[in-house]
Amino acid sequence: MHGVLWVIAELNRVGVTDARTLHAALTAIQAHPRCRLPNADVQRVLAMLSGNRT
């Protein structure tokens, strides 16, 4: 089973949308008070997306 972080990474990998949009989306998800995603993993994906910005 894959989760939201995998989906975001895959969307970036296949080029469905740009890294900036995905970064903004994940940042918004992380800011939600009920977000239960592991912070270290979120930071890893955000860093990956930051490196892929065009």
Characterise the protein shown here.
The chain has 54 residues and is mostly helical. The chain has one domain. 69% of the residues lie in helices and 0% in strands. The termini are far apart.
Layout of helices and strands, plus pairs?
Layout: H1 4-14, H2 19-31, H3 39-51
Nearest-angstrom radius of gyration? Answer: 10 Å
What is the number of independent domains?
Answer: 1
Q: In percent terms, what proportion of residues is strand?
A: under 5%
Q: Report helical residue fraction.
A: 55-70%
Helix-strand string: HHH
Low-confidence stretches: none
Which keywords apply here?
54 residues; mainly alpha; 3 helices; 0% strand
Task: Give a short overview.
The protein has 54 residues and is mostly helical. It has one domain. Helix content is 69%, strand content 0%.
